[in-house]
Amino acid sequence: MEVRAAENDLEAGRAALMSGWSSGERPLVMVRGKGAFVWDSQGRRYLDCISQAWAMNVGHSHPRVIEAAERQAREIAQVRSNYGNEPILLLAKRLAELAPGRLNRVAFSLHGSTAIETAMKLAMINRPGAGPFLTLFDGYHGRTLATMAVSWPHPNNKFAAFQRDPVRVPQAYCYRCPLNLTYSSCGIACADLVRQSIRKGITGRPTALLMEPIQGNGAQLDFPPEYLKAIRQICDEEGVLLIWDEVQTAFGRIPAMFAADYYGVVPDILVFGKAIGGGYPLAGVVARDDLEEFGPGEDALTFGHFAPSAAAALATIEVLEDEGVFENCKRQGDYIVNRLRDLQQGYEIIGDVRGPGLAIGVELVRDRQTKEPATKEAQEFYELGMERGVIFGTTRYGGLGNVVKIKPPAIITREEADLALEVFEDVLREISGRSRRN
Ligand SMILES: Cc1ncc(COP(=O)(O)O)c(C=O)c1O
């Protein structure tokens, strides 16, 4: 029989728990997850279009992932990182085989933020004395001190005493082009802003260019493939290291193991996280094998080689490869994006629909001509979706806050995709009706 915690104990826990998360949300307790769904303590079911922070690409409670993590936990869970453990070594081998080009050297961490810091330290070792990092507008790289600093400017930032600003460059935001040009007649002119910033925006050279190949947190923004290629070329020509933050994109959010494979662009350092553990915490970097590496003690964390997470990751990779997850990601992603573009014909509020795969963003505007952001409406989407049993993602801080995200597990079925779309349209109808009345 299922035994649940007493409501007053949960209430006391809630009162004790510190939170840096946004306030004002309903106090839900999630108690179960299976496939593309999660259930709260009241027994309500939600279609999880946020994959619990975009981490559950193979779905909740995948039996192969649970089995692998459980088996490892029974053998040995924690091994100090100066000793080897089997799953971590097998995973390092597997990632070096899978990652493209010369990305053959692997380091692990438990969070995307700390993995980004590993990448930043690696770049600093290889560019001693170089200047600040270069980043893109609306980029997001984590919540540790260093990664907050290299993300979009945090509102009311209280941490500046221990942070260093990057040089931020406008990104290829085609729907709102920073140069007021139109894709593709623009010739990707915005890539040259990166070159100009390398040459003129910094005294000396930047330590590296740190960017997401698809901006998840900012405005769920995918870039034209030519832009990614042009930036790679600029970095090569200018002698600048390129770090791709694939914490969101790797392992099935888009139809490939890595965005580097999907776009045919290989960074010098690639950072992964979130989905690799299939629900267990794991992150890390794969770096070019000719880079100088860490000295003793320069990158060691207590749980950095956590064996159950590594075992879960090996199983997750097998699931991605054996169970047609990338194909499904493409099939369902294309289906949802096409249906959303159909809806765009009927709903003025839909300004732009973006993919690829299941990295789907819908930018809402009050007016198609002025593109005035429909920020309040996008924020309402979350509540109205929850009432109807679907968790949609919103953008809260980076970007304009007017993008609704649909990023379910990549094992989502056609019926589940239809459910997400049905609820999306229902909410859209309600929100459009309201903004017409206002
Ligand atoms: C692109 C990107 N980089 C880094 C991070 C930080 O990862 P974590 O929250 O695991 O530290 C995130 C988390 O949302 C992310 O989306």
Outline of the structure:
With 438 residues, the protein is of the alpha/beta class. Helices cover 37% and strands 15% of the residues.
How would you describe this protein?
The protein has 438 residues and is an alpha/beta fold. The protein folds into two domains: 28-58 and 324-437, Aspartate Aminotransferase, domain 1 (Alpha-Beta Complex), CATH 3.90.1150.10; 64-322, Type I PLP-dependent aspartate aminotransferase-like (Major domain) (Aspartate Aminotransferase, domain 2). The protein has 13 helices and 17 strands. The strands form four sheets. Strands 4-12-11-10-7-5-6 form a seven-stranded mixed sheet, with helices on both faces. It has a four-stranded mixed sheet with strand order 1-2-3-15. A hairpin with a 5-residue loop joins strand 8 (214-215) and strand 9 (221-222). Helix 3 (63-75) packs antiparallel against helix 10 (307-322), helix 11 runs parallel beside helix 13 and helix 12 crosses helix 13 (414-437). The protein is globular, with a radius of gyration of 22 Å. The model has no long low-confidence stretch (mean pLDDT 95). Bound molecules: pyridoxal-5'-phosphate. The site of pyridoxal-5'-phosphate has 15 residues, from helix 5.
